[in-house]
UniProtKB/TrEMBL annotation:
Keyword NAD belongs to the record: no
Gene designation per UniProt: mtnK
Stated name of the protein: Methylthioribose kinase
Binding locations of substrate: 228, 344
Ligand binding (ATP): 40, 56, 110-112, 245-247
Catalytic activity: 5-(methylsulfanyl)-D-ribose + ATP = 5-(methylsulfanyl)-alpha-D-ribose 1-phosphate + ADP + H(+)
Known pathway: Amino-acid biosynthesis; L-methionine biosynthesis via salvage pathway; S-methyl-5-thio-alpha-D-ribose 1-phosphate from S-methyl-5'-thioadenosine (hydrolase route): step 2/2
InterPro entries: Aminoglycoside_PTrfase, Kinase-like_dom_sf, Methylthioribose_kinase
Length: 400
């Protein structure tokens, strides 16, 4: 067995040439690294006929920080395994794994280069008609089929063990639930925002509500999550949607993935206020984003309940009304987690291009104030909402 080494482009090319059979033996191959995420290397290897594959390799540290932030290579095993499992229940929206090598922390993936990363597209004002339904379908199927409703207790427990992901979960625990609410060296925001950050960090009701959400994240192994459903982890075109990058996957609260997704749509919604977008176009984008959130939540709930009605295997969980009660709580959780995504992307370590791309400082700070306030109110008020209609009303009232 070859020990781990971090590849350069030549080594990535040699690996694909010698250890896989994607290309003919005499193919003339080219390789380059183009990863732009926070954590890993991403290489594209292609021949002269436009056939290509992606080789993703984990580094023993977080790429965005460097060797001072060591990070487990096991994340490559988690990522490939989540993709395979999610692909088994929702192939249409999951990037295909073509090859894996857990020792080298390598996953070879289908190349989605003909599609686009959603975040950049939304920033440019492009819209995708199937996005909301596709993401809802992915979230409903992947979460239902890995939950206690479907798996036997023994299967579920074995999977919870297989997908224990302590180091990556610790990043989420720190960045979502701790750093923004305390002084932390990792926090990152302009001085102009300090009064708002101070108010947020002194809000004891907010901290209590965040504690509830963190406790849920720490100890609710409801299903196998993607763990990082932001708009930079979604490839889109006018017909298809593909999720990538589930290295933060673990058994956690189902609402976390849905909340992260709608949080990222809302970050873009708020940023559109200050982009150089003319009013009619901005209204259209806002309507599209709001409609996508509502459609995604409604479709997620509908698909989940249909699956629960027809495919629940656990006897007690078949009790009439239980699935409805369960999914209602998942939606409340989702809006709360959505609030934590809004806040951590505004003042925490990892920002989003939607906001950071606004060049004018005053305009950017105004958007940051809005995302902080929206996040705060969602976290505080979602637990009081009884139905998805109440949650939707809450969101609409906060966006007025
Ligand atoms: N299957 C793929 N096809 C094409 N490009 C990809 C693929 N997977 C990743 N990429 C590119 O690499 C970038 C970083 O990938 P990502 O999985 O998000 O890395 P990280 O884990 O470091 O965040 C993506 O933004 C995208 O541009
Ligand atoms: C130091 S990890 C910060 C942040 O990065 C991850 O996103 P990605 O790897 O897709 O860029 C994840 O959201 C983490 O919270």
């Amino acid at each position: 067995m070859v020990d781990y080494i971090a590849f350069d482009s030549t080594q990535a090319l040699e690996y694909v040439k010698n250890q896989t059979n994607f290309f003919a033996p005499d193919a003339e191959l080219t390789c380059y690294e183009f990863g732009d995420g926070n954590l890993n290397l991403v290489f594209r290897i292609h021949d002269q006929q436009q056939h290509s594959v992606i080789l993703k390799q984990a580094l023993p540290y977080a790429r965005c920080v460097g060797e001072s932030w060591p990070l487990t290579l096991d994340r490559a095993r988690i990522e490939a395994s989540v993709l395979i499992r999610h692909g088994e229940v929702c192939a249409q929206t999951t990037v295909k794994v073509l090859h894996r090598n857990d020792t080298l922390a390598i996953t070879v993936l289908e190349d989605l280069g003909h599609m686009h990363i959603l975040r950049g597209q939304l920033c440019q004002g492009h819209t995708y008609p199937n996005l909301a339904i596709d993401v809802a379908d992915y979230l409903a199927k992947t979460s239902f089929y890995h939950s206690d409703f479907y798996l036997s207790p023994a299967q579920k427990k074995a999977l919870v063990k297989e997908f224990t992901n302590p180091e990556l979960c610790a990043i989420t625990e720190d960045l979502f639930f701790d750093d923004p609410y305390h002084r932390s060296e990792r926090n990152n925001y302009p001085n102009e925002l300090q009064p708002h950050v101070t108010a947020l960090q002194n809000n004891s009701n907010l901290k209590l509500a965040v504690a509830e959400l963190k406790a849920k994240f720490l100890s609710s192994p409801q299903s196998l999550l993607h763990g990082d459903v932001h708009t930079g982890s979604i490839f889109v075109d006018q017909t298809n949607t593909k999720l990538i990058d589930p290295e933060f996957g673990f058994f956690g609260p189902i609402g976390f993935d849905l909340g992260s997704f709608i949080g990222n749509l809302l970050l873009n919604y708020c940023a559109q206020h200050k982009r150089a977008v003319e009013l009619p176009k901005r209204r259209d984008l806002h309507a599209y984003l709001l409609n996508s959130i509502q459609t995604c939540v409604a479709q997620f709930e509908k698909t989940w309940l249909q699956l629960a009605k027809t495919q629940t295997r656990d006897l007690a969980l078949q009790a009439p009304g239980y699935a409805e009660r369960f999914i209602n709580q998942v939606l409340r959780d989702a809006y709360g987690f959505c609030g934590t995504e809004l806040i951590r992307r505004t003042i925490g370590l990892a920002h989003v291009a939607d906001i950071d791309g606004i060049e004018n400082l005053r305009a950017r700070v105004e958007v940051q104030q809005q995302t902080l306030l929206l996040g705060e109110q969602l976290i505080l008020q979602a637990p009081q909402c009884d139905t998805k209609e109440d949650l939707s009303q809450l969101l609409l009232s906060l966006l007025l």
